[in-house]
Design a protein that fits this description.
Radius of gyration of chain B: 19 Å
Shape of chain B: elongated
Helix content of chain A: 40-55%
Largest interface: A-B, 37 and 36 residues
Shape of chain A: elongated
Order of helices and strands of chain A: HEEEEEH
Strand content of chain A: 15-25%
Structural class of chain B: mainly alpha
Strand order of the largest sheet of chain B: 1-2
Strand order of the largest sheet of chain A: 1-5-4
Radius of gyration of chain A: 22 Å
Number of helices of chain B: 4
Oligomer: heterodimer
Distance between the termini of chain B: 21 Å
Number of strands of chain B: 2
Distance between the termini of chain A: 21 Å
Order of helices and strands of chain B: HHEHEH
Largest sheet of chain B: 2 strands, antiparallel
Chain lengths: 139, 130
């Protein structure tokens, strides 16, 4: 607790999980978006996590996490035959996003659990550092 | 005098430092719970404490401008945890295990801190001679 690296490590986890929750939110919001062609259909956003090594610490003990990229899922969009739909193409197909809501909900639960874990650890670290700073007080 | 105080603090000062290092490793594990390919790490506390105490000792300072080593041979080698249930993406962090270890480590850190506080209180009583 002599240094404050742990705040950076756990803080990076909070930031990364927030990005993940954000992608889940936009995926769910656009889950039922319809489009006139396969290319225009919404594709699920997927955050790519990567570990970042603190270069100043050669022992590699402080490894944070970063969102390297927000990729788009390359699964084909869902095509439905709806000739009466205003967006239907020449063949009568409407293209819906490739978001699977159940998968997104599971991802959301996983992200919020990880967020909770990091936040709790952060609270513990803060308390320990405060106790350490008060070492020898009142002796 | 400094040596006397070091002796009074005994093993607890080293233990506290190692606990902080272990907390850092466990925090990194928790932070990377969802990072593909991340391997969870931990230190063997018993062995680390033994090597810190019976280690190489302080560095020799043969010149006036040499800096004394702060941690006398406290070298911790982080080992990789054997996963109970490795996941397909190569991540070996088991969040429950890491959280339990983090909690345990925090409490042991607090214990060392309490011992140190006790030692300091004892020293102060002796110094005041009341």
């Amino acid at each position: 607790m002599s240094d404050f690296r742990m705040f950076g490590t756990l803080g990076s986890a909070l930031a990364a999980q927030t990005v993940r929750l954000n992608t889940v939110a936009s995926n769910l919001a656009n889950a039922d978006q319809a489009a006139g062609s396969a290319d225009a259909a919404y594709r699920a956003r997927v955050p790519v996590f990567a570990a970042v090594l603190d270069q100043a610490q050669r022992d590699g003990s402080s490894v944070g996490v970063q969102v390297k990229d927000v990729a788009t899922s390359d699964e084909p969009p869902r095509a439905e035959y709806q000739p009466g739909h205003p967006l239907a193409d020449a063949q009568g197909y409407v293209y819906y996003s490739n978001v699977r809501p159940v998968e997104q909900m599971a991802d959301m639960i996983s992200a919020s659990r990880s967020y909770e874990g990091a936040a709790q650890a952060l609270g513990t670290v803060q308390e320990l550092i405060q106790r350490t700073l008060r070492l020898g007080e009142g002796a | 005098m400094a040596n006397l105080i070091d002796q009074a603090f005994g093993t607890h000062a080293t233990a506290l430092q190692l606990r902080a290092e272990r907390a850092q490793l466990l925090a990194a594990n928790l932070a990377n719970a969802d990072t593909p390919g991340f391997k969870a790490r931990d230190i063997d506390f018993k062995q680390a404490l033994a090597s810190a105490q019976g280690g190489a000792g302080p560095l020799l300072t043969t010149q006036v401008n040499h800096l004394a080593s702060l941690d006398a041979g406290a070298s911790t080698t982080a080992l990789y945890r054997t996963p109970l249930q490795p996941s397909l993406d190569g991540n070996t962090v088991d969040v429950a295990t890491e959280q339990a270890a983090f909690g345990e480590n925090s409490n042991r850190y607090l214990a060392s801190l309490t011992f140190l506080n006790g030692r300091i209180r004892g020293l102060m009583t002796a110094l005041r001679g009341e």
